[in-house]
Amino acid sequence: MKMCIEKIGMIRPQHNIKSQELDLAVDWSVDFENDTAKIMGYVCKIKTSKSFPLNLQIEGILNSDDLENFSKTEVSQVIFSKCLEILLNLLNLSKEHFFEIQEKIVSKGKKGTFLKKVNCDNSDYLKLTDI
């Protein structure tokens, strides 16, 4: 059986939890839609607990010569396992990243424009500055 992912959608909290241990209790479901005898669509939805609320929905298709005789329970668990792996990867990719950039010239003109590191409310951001 071949599993293809067509769409991924995730809504994550704006702020990351500072604790290194996180209990991700999840509610999940996998719904199937028959397309043809060899292709079946699926939608996997994952919703986490209130301590770190996020929603993930993955839509895709299953392709097999024998879709009529498969166990939806077993396939649902395989789909959920793969979607949970994707969720953890997306969380890691979308977390806050901090880095420092030195002041440097962006463009030169008569006055010159610089990209300057500025501290605001204990968080750094970059600002274009004319000189």
Descriptive account of the structure:
- This protein has 131 residues and is of the alpha+beta class.
- It folds into 2 domains: 2-94, Bacterial Protein-export protein SecB; 100-131, no CATH class.
- Helix content is 18%, strand content 44%.
- It contains 1 helix and 7 strands; from the N terminus they run E-E-E-E-H-E-E-E.
- It has one helix at 72-94; strands spanning 2-11, 26-34, 39-48, 55-63, 104-107, 113-120, 123-130.
- It has a 4-stranded antiparallel beta sheet, covered by helices on one side. It has a 3-stranded antiparallel beta sheet with strand order 5-6-7, with no helix packed on it.
- A hairpin with a 6-residue loop joins strand 3 and strand 4.
- The longest helix has 23 residues, at 72-94.
Secondary-structure topology with pairs:
Blueprint lengths: L1 E10 L14 E9 L4 E10 L6 E9 L8 H23 L9 E4 L5 E8 L2 E8 L1
Antiparallel strand pairs: 1-4, 2-3, 3-4, 5-6, 6-7
